[in-house]
Specification:
Layout (H helix, E strand, L loop, with lengths): L32 E11 L13 E5 L2 E10 L7 E8 L10 H9 L5 E9 L2 E9 L2 H6 L14 H10 L7 E8 L14 H13 L1 E7 L10 H18 L3 E2 L11 H11 L2 E8 L6 E4 L1 E4 L4 E4 L3 E4 L4
Parallel strand pairs: 4-5, 4-7, 7-8, 8-9
Antiparallel strand pairs: 1-10, 1-13, 2-3, 2-12, 3-10, 5-6, 11-14
Helix pairs in contact: 3-4, 4-5
Amino acid sequence: MLKFCFRSVVVCSLAAILASTTVWAQQAPGGGTPVHLVVTAEAHKGNNPPEVKKDDVMVYEGKTRDTVTDWIPATGDHAALELFILIDDSSSSSLGSQLQDIKQFIGHQPPTTKIGVAYMQNGVANVVANLTDDHDAAAKAVRLPMGVGGANASPYFSLSDLVKRWPASNARREVLMISNGIDLYYGMWDMEDPYLQSAIDDAGKAGIVVSAIYTPGAGHLGHDYWASYWGQLYLADLAEKTGGEAYYIGFTGAPVSFAPYLDNLSERLQHQYFLGFFAQPRNKAGWQRIRLTTELPGVDLVSAGRVYVPAGQ
């Protein structure tokens, strides 16, 4: 038995030690390594995508097609979802106008969804509401950010902190990250930010999907075009590589409303699947790039573009 404690709200959970939702270490028949991840079906024109069947799904590593073993809709007995709302405490006070949209989003989630709320503070995830199916209680925990520039040295430290302290679960695990994405700790503008990449790796290994909404930070960085541009690119990279969605406006101002983004996220959560397949065996553990395709017209399958595969046994 393991005891898990969050920094702000002590959470004790008695759970069996489960294999990761991303990979299973044991060797599969035929020499492949079983891999599992969450996939979102997305319609090209914004309509509800049709139901996707197992036979419609193809997984490739390079030119090699892998064997799909499981394709389970995240509905009914498999609908359980754990969703953390992770808010940057250095966000501008403009976020205040979006709080009602966030609270309504929480209240509209189905009973099978547990919601947690945490704030990014100085590199940690300060949990103010632990995962709960009491959506009213979770919504009440949402507050104005501190609005102090520099309150969070790197939002990616906080994401990694949350991921590492999140107990394993058979449910889907996802994060909605609300931040300007700017990494003050790294301080350089390129895609080599090691803290961003480390957070992507941590989420990927844990099988956690991260979506992000851009909101300006407090102080000068709240209207610095260059910093905001790179911050939005970082959030987009994070979402793309973990199988989530990034919502941003492309400028330095605040979004008019979060409601369209949150409505889209709610829709995406209703069209997800658990995918299992045999990855090609490797001599060394490491990341393997994958590509998901389907011949269903007008449908994309969205997931992490790579999986962590243990060394073959």
